[in-house]
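Archive transcription. Copying these from loose printouts into the bound notebook so they stop getting lost. Printout 1 of 2:
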Amino acid sequence: MPTITSYFGFLLAALTITSALFISLNKIRLI
Protein backbone atom coordinates (compact mmCIF):
# COMPACT_ATOMS: atom_id res chain seq x y z
CA MET A 1 0.00 0.00 0.00
CA PRO A 2 2.73 2.58 0.84
CA THR A 3 4.34 1.96 -2.55
CA ILE A 4 1.14 2.90 -4.37
CA THR A 5 0.78 6.06 -2.28
CA SER A 6 4.39 7.09 -2.90
CA TYR A 7 3.98 6.34 -6.62
CA PHE A 8 0.91 8.57 -6.86
CA GLY A 9 2.68 11.25 -4.83
CA PHE A 10 5.62 11.15 -7.22
CA LEU A 11 3.25 11.28 -10.20
CA LEU A 12 1.42 14.27 -8.71
CA ALA A 13 4.71 16.08 -8.03
CA ALA A 14 5.94 15.42 -11.59
CA LEU A 15 2.64 16.67 -13.01
CA THR A 16 2.79 19.83 -10.89
CA ILE A 17 6.40 20.53 -11.92
CA THR A 18 5.68 19.98 -15.61
CA SER A 19 2.55 22.16 -15.51
CA ALA A 20 4.45 24.92 -13.69
CA LEU A 21 7.24 24.78 -16.27
CA PHE A 22 4.68 24.84 -19.10
CA ILE A 23 2.96 27.92 -17.62
CA SER A 24 6.27 29.72 -17.09
CA LEU A 25 7.34 28.93 -20.65
CA ASN A 26 4.05 30.30 -21.97
CA LYS A 27 4.50 33.49 -19.92
CA ILE A 28 8.04 33.94 -21.27
CA ARG A 29 6.74 33.38 -24.80
CA LEU A 30 3.97 35.95 -24.32
CA ILE A 31 6.40 38.62 -23.16
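Printout 2 of 2:
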Amino acid sequence: MEHGIRPAQWVRKGEWLVTTAPQSSLHLPERFARKLMQQGDVQTTGDRLRIRLFRDEEDATPPYWMDLEILYEDDFCLVVNKPAGMLVHPTVPGQQETLANAVASYYACTGQKLRVRHIHRLDENTTGPVLYAKNEFSQLILDAAMREKAIERIYVAFVQGQVSSTLLKIDAPIGKDRHHNNRRRVSPSGDAAVTHVEVVETYPDADVSLVRLQLETGRTHQIRVHLSYAGHPLLGDALYGGSTTYASYQALHGEELRFQHPLHRDEISVKAPWTPLFNTLRSTFNR
Protein backbone atom coordinates (compact mmCIF):
# COMPACT_ATOMS: atom_id res chain seq x y z
CA MET A 1 0.00 0.00 0.00
CA GLU A 2 1.26 3.48 -0.89
CA HIS A 3 1.64 5.88 2.00
CA GLY A 4 0.39 9.44 1.75
CA ILE A 5 0.37 12.49 3.97
CA ARG A 6 -0.28 11.66 7.62
CA PRO A 7 -2.99 13.61 9.51
CA ALA A 8 -0.42 15.48 11.61
CA GLN A 9 1.38 16.67 8.47
CA TRP A 10 -1.34 18.79 6.89
CA VAL A 11 -4.07 21.30 7.56
CA ARG A 12 -6.70 22.94 5.37
CA LYS A 13 -6.68 26.72 5.20
CA GLY A 14 -9.53 27.87 2.99
CA GLU A 15 -8.81 26.73 -0.56
CA TRP A 16 -5.32 25.58 0.36
CA LEU A 17 -3.82 22.39 1.71
CA VAL A 18 -0.76 23.30 3.79
CA THR A 19 1.73 20.55 4.57
CA THR A 20 5.28 19.92 5.72
CA ALA A 21 5.39 16.67 3.75
CA PRO A 22 7.20 16.48 0.40
CA GLN A 23 5.06 17.02 -2.71
CA SER A 24 5.82 13.46 -3.85
CA SER A 25 3.81 12.09 -0.91
CA LEU A 26 0.61 13.50 -2.43
CA HIS A 27 0.97 11.22 -5.47
CA LEU A 28 -0.38 13.99 -7.70
CA PRO A 29 -1.16 12.77 -11.23
CA GLU A 30 1.48 14.24 -13.54
CA ARG A 31 -0.86 16.22 -15.78
CA PHE A 32 -2.77 17.59 -12.79
CA ALA A 33 0.49 18.61 -11.09
CA ARG A 34 1.56 20.51 -14.22
CA LYS A 35 -1.79 22.31 -14.34
CA LEU A 36 -1.47 23.35 -10.70
CA MET A 37 2.03 24.70 -11.34
CA GLN A 38 0.90 26.64 -14.42
CA GLN A 39 -1.99 28.20 -12.46
CA GLY A 40 0.25 29.22 -9.57
CA ASP A 41 -1.55 26.79 -7.28
CA VAL A 42 1.64 25.35 -5.78
CA GLN A 43 3.65 27.54 -3.41
CA THR A 44 6.55 26.89 -1.05
CA THR A 45 7.58 28.87 2.02
CA GLY A 46 10.49 27.40 3.93
CA ASP A 47 9.55 23.81 4.72
CA ARG A 48 5.86 24.43 4.06
CA LEU A 49 4.11 23.46 0.85
CA ARG A 50 0.80 25.07 -0.12
CA ILE A 51 -1.40 23.52 -2.79
CA ARG A 52 -4.76 24.91 -3.85
CA LEU A 53 -6.93 21.78 -3.88
CA PHE A 54 -10.20 23.19 -2.52
CA ARG A 55 -11.34 25.75 -5.10
CA ASP A 56 -14.95 26.91 -5.04
CA GLU A 57 -16.74 25.39 -8.04
CA GLU A 58 -19.92 25.99 -9.97
CA ASP A 59 -22.17 23.03 -10.75
CA ALA A 60 -25.04 22.93 -13.22
CA THR A 61 -26.88 20.16 -11.33
CA PRO A 62 -30.21 21.58 -10.06
CA PRO A 63 -30.59 20.93 -6.32
CA TYR A 64 -33.34 18.57 -5.18
CA TRP A 65 -33.79 18.41 -1.42
CA MET A 66 -34.23 15.10 0.35
CA ASP A 67 -33.06 13.81 3.71
CA LEU A 68 -29.76 12.18 2.76
CA GLU A 69 -28.05 9.62 4.98
CA ILE A 70 -24.36 10.55 5.03
CA LEU A 71 -22.24 7.50 5.79
CA TYR A 72 -18.82 9.20 5.57
CA GLU A 73 -17.52 12.68 4.83
CA ASP A 74 -14.28 14.63 4.99
CA ASP A 75 -12.63 17.32 2.83
CA PHE A 76 -11.95 14.84 0.03
CA CYS A 77 -14.76 12.27 -0.05
CA LEU A 78 -18.47 11.89 0.53
CA VAL A 79 -20.32 8.57 0.83
CA VAL A 80 -24.11 8.64 0.68
CA ASN A 81 -26.56 5.81 1.36
CA LYS A 82 -28.71 5.56 -1.78
CA PRO A 83 -32.36 4.59 -1.29
CA ALA A 84 -34.31 2.32 -3.62
CA GLY A 85 -36.20 3.90 -6.50
CA MET A 86 -33.66 6.63 -7.19
CA LEU A 87 -31.23 7.02 -10.08
CA VAL A 88 -27.66 8.06 -9.31
CA HIS A 89 -27.77 10.80 -11.96
CA PRO A 90 -30.22 12.19 -14.55
CA THR A 91 -30.65 10.16 -17.72
CA VAL A 92 -33.00 12.51 -19.59
CA PRO A 93 -33.13 16.34 -19.80
CA GLY A 94 -35.04 17.99 -16.97
CA GLN A 95 -34.85 15.00 -14.63
CA GLN A 96 -34.13 16.24 -11.11
CA GLU A 97 -35.20 13.67 -8.51
CA THR A 98 -31.87 11.82 -8.60
CA LEU A 99 -29.09 11.26 -6.09
CA ALA A 100 -26.88 13.74 -7.94
CA ASN A 101 -29.49 16.46 -7.46
CA ALA A 102 -29.87 15.52 -3.80
CA VAL A 103 -26.10 15.74 -3.29
CA ALA A 104 -26.09 19.14 -5.04
CA SER A 105 -28.75 20.26 -2.54
CA TYR A 106 -26.72 18.89 0.38
CA TYR A 107 -23.65 20.80 -0.75
CA ALA A 108 -25.68 24.00 -1.12
CA CYS A 109 -27.32 23.60 2.30
CA THR A 110 -23.95 23.01 3.99
CA GLY A 111 -22.22 25.93 2.25
CA GLN A 112 -19.96 23.76 0.10
CA LYS A 113 -19.42 25.13 -3.42
CA LEU A 114 -18.59 21.84 -5.11
CA ARG A 115 -19.28 19.93 -8.29
CA VAL A 116 -21.11 16.62 -7.97
CA ARG A 117 -18.58 13.92 -8.88
CA HIS A 118 -19.79 10.33 -8.48
CA ILE A 119 -17.12 7.64 -8.65
CA HIS A 120 -19.39 4.65 -9.27
CA ARG A 121 -23.08 3.94 -9.75
CA LEU A 122 -25.84 1.70 -8.43
CA ASP A 123 -28.95 0.57 -10.31
CA GLU A 124 -32.14 2.52 -9.61
CA ASN A 125 -33.53 0.00 -7.11
CA THR A 126 -30.23 -1.12 -5.59
CA THR A 127 -29.55 0.42 -2.19
CA GLY A 128 -26.27 1.18 -0.46
CA PRO A 129 -23.21 3.44 -0.44
CA VAL A 130 -22.25 5.70 -3.36
CA LEU A 131 -18.86 7.41 -3.30
CA TYR A 132 -18.32 11.02 -4.39
CA ALA A 133 -15.09 12.97 -4.83
CA LYS A 134 -15.20 16.50 -3.42
CA ASN A 135 -12.45 17.99 -5.58
CA GLU A 136 -10.56 17.33 -8.81
CA PHE A 137 -7.58 15.78 -7.01
CA SER A 138 -9.79 13.22 -5.26
CA GLN A 139 -11.67 12.44 -8.46
CA LEU A 140 -8.48 11.70 -10.39
CA ILE A 141 -7.17 9.41 -7.63
CA LEU A 142 -10.47 7.59 -7.08
CA ASP A 143 -11.26 7.23 -10.80
CA ALA A 144 -7.84 5.60 -11.23
CA ALA A 145 -8.58 3.30 -8.29
CA MET A 146 -11.84 2.22 -9.98
CA ARG A 147 -10.01 1.46 -13.22
CA GLU A 148 -7.43 -0.55 -11.29
CA LYS A 149 -10.20 -2.47 -9.43
CA ALA A 150 -8.88 -1.14 -6.13
CA ILE A 151 -12.27 -0.03 -4.79
CA GLU A 152 -14.04 -2.98 -3.17
CA ARG A 153 -17.83 -3.16 -3.36
CA ILE A 154 -19.54 -5.82 -1.26
CA TYR A 155 -23.24 -6.60 -1.64
CA VAL A 156 -25.85 -8.85 -0.08
CA ALA A 157 -28.79 -10.31 -1.96
CA PHE A 158 -31.72 -12.62 -1.43
CA VAL A 159 -31.93 -15.05 -4.34
CA GLN A 160 -34.14 -17.90 -5.44
CA GLY A 161 -33.10 -21.48 -4.75
CA GLN A 162 -30.58 -23.16 -2.48
CA VAL A 163 -27.20 -21.80 -3.56
CA SER A 164 -24.45 -24.39 -3.26
CA SER A 165 -21.48 -23.54 -1.04
CA THR A 166 -19.30 -24.66 -3.95
CA LEU A 167 -20.44 -21.67 -6.02
CA LEU A 168 -17.57 -19.33 -5.20
CA LYS A 169 -17.11 -17.36 -8.41
CA ILE A 170 -19.09 -16.55 -11.53
CA ASP A 171 -16.77 -15.72 -14.42
CA ALA A 172 -18.89 -15.01 -17.48
CA PRO A 173 -18.67 -12.10 -19.98
CA ILE A 174 -21.63 -9.73 -20.15
CA GLY A 175 -22.98 -7.91 -23.20
CA LYS A 176 -26.15 -6.17 -24.35
CA ASP A 177 -29.26 -8.19 -25.04
CA ARG A 178 -30.15 -7.32 -28.63
CA HIS A 179 -33.75 -8.40 -28.02
CA HIS A 180 -34.31 -6.09 -25.03
CA ASN A 181 -32.91 -2.55 -24.71
CA ASN A 182 -32.78 -2.56 -20.90
CA ARG A 183 -31.37 -6.04 -20.39
CA ARG A 184 -27.86 -7.44 -20.36
CA ARG A 185 -26.95 -11.08 -20.91
CA VAL A 186 -24.03 -13.46 -20.63
CA SER A 187 -22.42 -13.46 -24.07
CA PRO A 188 -19.10 -14.83 -25.38
CA SER A 189 -18.54 -11.52 -27.17
CA GLY A 190 -19.32 -9.44 -24.06
CA ASP A 191 -17.00 -7.70 -21.62
CA ALA A 192 -15.17 -9.75 -18.99
CA ALA A 193 -17.15 -9.93 -15.75
CA VAL A 194 -16.31 -11.67 -12.47
CA THR A 195 -18.48 -11.91 -9.34
CA HIS A 196 -17.35 -13.64 -6.14
CA VAL A 197 -20.06 -15.45 -4.15
CA GLU A 198 -20.38 -16.42 -0.48
CA VAL A 199 -23.44 -18.24 0.85
CA VAL A 200 -24.51 -16.60 4.13
CA GLU A 201 -27.77 -18.43 4.90
CA THR A 202 -30.21 -20.73 3.18
CA TYR A 203 -33.95 -20.98 3.85
CA PRO A 204 -35.15 -24.40 2.61
CA ASP A 205 -38.82 -23.82 3.42
CA ALA A 206 -38.93 -20.74 1.19
CA ASP A 207 -36.34 -22.07 -1.30
CA VAL A 208 -34.36 -18.86 -0.88
CA SER A 209 -30.71 -18.06 -0.09
CA LEU A 210 -28.93 -15.03 1.31
CA VAL A 211 -25.60 -14.46 -0.44
CA ARG A 212 -22.76 -11.98 -0.10
CA LEU A 213 -21.21 -10.82 -3.35
CA GLN A 214 -18.04 -8.98 -4.27
CA LEU A 215 -17.47 -7.43 -7.68
CA GLU A 216 -14.15 -7.83 -9.44
CA THR A 217 -15.53 -5.90 -12.40
CA GLY A 218 -18.40 -3.44 -12.65
CA ARG A 219 -20.57 -4.22 -15.65
CA THR A 220 -24.12 -2.90 -15.94
CA HIS A 221 -26.51 -5.19 -14.01
CA GLN A 222 -23.56 -7.54 -13.34
CA ILE A 223 -24.83 -9.19 -10.16
CA ARG A 224 -28.36 -9.50 -11.50
CA VAL A 225 -27.18 -11.06 -14.78
CA HIS A 226 -24.67 -13.41 -13.13
CA LEU A 227 -27.03 -14.75 -10.47
CA SER A 228 -29.79 -15.28 -13.03
CA TYR A 229 -27.29 -17.06 -15.28
CA ALA A 230 -26.33 -19.31 -12.35
CA GLY A 231 -29.99 -20.25 -11.86
CA HIS A 232 -30.54 -18.03 -8.82
CA PRO A 233 -32.25 -14.79 -9.89
CA LEU A 234 -32.64 -12.10 -7.25
CA LEU A 235 -35.95 -11.91 -5.43
CA GLY A 236 -38.05 -9.15 -6.95
CA ASP A 237 -35.93 -8.89 -10.10
CA ALA A 238 -38.61 -9.52 -12.72
CA LEU A 239 -36.34 -8.30 -15.54
CA TYR A 240 -34.04 -11.28 -14.98
CA GLY A 241 -36.57 -13.93 -14.00
CA GLY A 242 -36.92 -13.22 -10.29
CA SER A 243 -40.18 -13.81 -8.43
CA THR A 244 -42.01 -10.77 -7.06
CA THR A 245 -43.78 -12.76 -4.34
CA TYR A 246 -41.62 -11.34 -1.55
CA ALA A 247 -40.26 -8.12 -3.09
CA SER A 248 -41.40 -5.72 -5.81
CA TYR A 249 -37.84 -4.82 -6.85
CA GLN A 250 -34.49 -6.60 -6.74
CA ALA A 251 -33.37 -7.56 -3.22
CA LEU A 252 -29.84 -6.24 -3.67
CA HIS A 253 -28.06 -4.02 -1.16
CA GLY A 254 -24.58 -2.52 -1.12
CA GLU A 255 -23.38 -3.58 2.31
CA GLU A 256 -19.84 -2.22 2.36
CA LEU A 257 -17.48 -0.01 0.36
CA ARG A 258 -13.71 -0.08 0.85
CA PHE A 259 -11.26 2.32 -0.73
CA GLN A 260 -7.88 3.89 -0.15
CA HIS A 261 -8.18 7.51 0.95
CA PRO A 262 -6.92 9.87 -1.78
CA LEU A 263 -4.65 11.84 0.57
CA HIS A 264 -3.35 9.71 3.43
CA ARG A 265 -3.91 6.35 1.68
CA ASP A 266 -5.34 4.57 4.71
CA GLU A 267 -8.14 2.12 3.95
CA ILE A 268 -11.60 3.55 4.51
CA SER A 269 -14.37 1.03 5.15
CA VAL A 270 -17.94 2.32 4.96
CA LYS A 271 -20.88 0.09 5.84
CA ALA A 272 -24.52 0.76 5.00
CA PRO A 273 -27.17 -0.56 7.41
CA TRP A 274 -29.66 -3.06 6.06
CA THR A 275 -32.85 -1.61 4.63
CA PRO A 276 -36.33 -2.33 6.03
CA LEU A 277 -36.89 -4.67 3.06
CA PHE A 278 -33.85 -6.77 3.96
CA ASN A 279 -34.70 -6.91 7.64
CA THR A 280 -38.28 -7.93 6.83
CA LEU A 281 -37.17 -10.64 4.40
CA ARG A 282 -34.70 -12.13 6.86
CA SER A 283 -37.31 -12.15 9.64
CA THR A 284 -39.86 -13.76 7.32
CA PHE A 285 -37.53 -16.52 6.17
CA ASN A 286 -36.22 -17.24 9.68
CA ARG A 287 -39.68 -18.00 11.10
